[in-house]
Each structure stands twice: as structure tokens, then as C-alpha cells.
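Handoff note, outgoing to incoming analyst
You'll be picking up this chain. Sequence as last confirmed:
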Amino acid sequence: MRASPPARELPAQVRNGDGETFRRLVEPYRRELQVHCYRMLGSVQDAEDLLQETLLAAWRGIDGYEERASVRTWLYRIATNRCLNALRASGRRPQAAEPSWLEPYPDVLLAGIVDQRPGPEARYEVSESVSLAFLTALQQLPPRQRAVLVLRDVLGFRTAEVANILGTTGNAVTSALTRARGALQSADRTRVPLPDSPQERRVVADFVRAFEAADVDAVVAMLTDDAWLTMPPMPLAYQGPAAVGDFLVTVAWRDGHRHVLVPTRANGQPAFGCYLRDPRTPILHAHGVLVLGLTGDRIDAITRFHDNAPLAAFGLPRSLHV
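Most recent structure output, in case you need it:
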């Protein structure tokens, strides 16, 4: 679905300080700007905070908008530079293969984002560009390379537009993009099942049955040889079926612990609210969010977010009665 070209001119009411007209002007871009900030920062809460900063800065900086670029491009310039400032201020640098600050992004928040990309140069679909594998690789890039790759290859801005957004030259953008693409070229998303396809539904159903039954052999049989189990924000990572199976037996399912998985979607991938059974009561206690990465009919990543805070964004409660 393509959107009509964004308007360049601000309504006179906005120039005259009409806040309601300004709100209506920027509302169509709110959700895609939040996703942009999430790609840059890896945190849903940080993305929302930076979105609010962006809109406030746009409102306060109306007089500086010269209408040489579209309103959308102007907003992306503010948002991108706010994100870069935040990254510089926090001094965030990757400490492990899975950034500890990475949070799951509910698919429901992706609904309705209009495809603004102008042509085939943009390589990533929306679901691919928020996948945990892509986000993890993206967070390893230096901030400006990260910004260039997202603006060019995900959002489809032209080189000259990216240069204007970042206040740099076209040559600098091209150089940064070449380095960023080189760093991400090993990521292979070609065998990921289509969302809600029969293949995906079959793998997910088999995983739920095995996980809820604490059937380690069945879970291990579904894993690729190089599958990862990670648990942000804890700096723990296990690779390979044997290591993952050992963790499930000795930690996740020790002492007879059993779980119930409530299906949802995060980052364009199958996901679950994870609930721990209490054998003494009919209450299930929230135990974070679990996201699966699929390759063909196998699982290549299990990401277990232990924090219960994201549950609300998925419309999931802190406890369930059975």
C-alpha cells in the first residue's frame, strides 16, 4: 500500500500556534516514528519517550521549518537526531551478542503503518525490519551507521535526503551505508515462514505442546544446530540443542516447574506471554515474554524476556486463573 506524497506546506493555523491542527498534522506519522525510534534504540519505552520529545521539539520549532522537505522528512530528521543524541548521552555500546536493553515490540503496534518506500532499493519489509535478529544486528552498528541503514534500506529515503537529515554529505552517507550493509549481510531471512502461514502455525503448535509438557527431547528436536537461547536483560546465552536442553532441564523446568504459553506476536514473530503454574492455587503467575525465531520448519532462536513490564503493551495480565 502506497501513501500519497506528503505535503510540504504547513497549514496557516499551525504557524499561528493552533495545537489541535498541529496534532492532526503529525498524527499520521506518530506510529511509524515510534517504530523508527525503537529500531534505533531497541527499547519500547525509550522509543515512546523519544517520540514525545520529537513531537514537542517539532511543535516548538515550527518557525524553523522552511518547507524545503516534506513534513514527514522534517519529523524524521528531528527523531533521528534525538535518537543519536540519546545514544551519545547514554554511552550505550553492545556488551554481548544480545543487547541487554532490547525489548519485544508488539505486532499490534505495527498495524496500519503505511509503506512509504519509493522503490526496490528498500530491502526490508516491515516485519523483517523489526525482527529480533535484525534488531540485534542493528544494535551492534555504530549509531550513525545504524541511522543511515534504517533511513536508506528500511525507510527508502534517498541519499541526498539522508544527508540532509543527518547534516552530512552524500559521500559520507554512501560510505556509512556500505559499511553497515557489510556488517549485516550475513543475516539470512529468506527461509523465515510467512506470518500465520500453515508452516508457521504447525511449528508454533508443536513448540507449545512440547514446552508446556516440559518435553525437553521434543523441544530440542525442533532446534537448528546453531539455535540460541537468550534472556535479556540477563547476560546469559546458550547455543546449540544440547546447551539449550540442559538449561531447560536444570533451570527452567527444575523442581517440576510447568508453564502455560499464551500466544501473541512480537517483532513480526510468534511470541507468547509466559505464565508459571502454581501447584497450590489455580493462579498462573506472569513470567515474561517468549519470542521464537524460525528458519523453515525449525527454531533458530528462543528469546526469553524475563521482565513482566512489557506484558501490558501486549494486552496480557500479570496473572491468570485456570
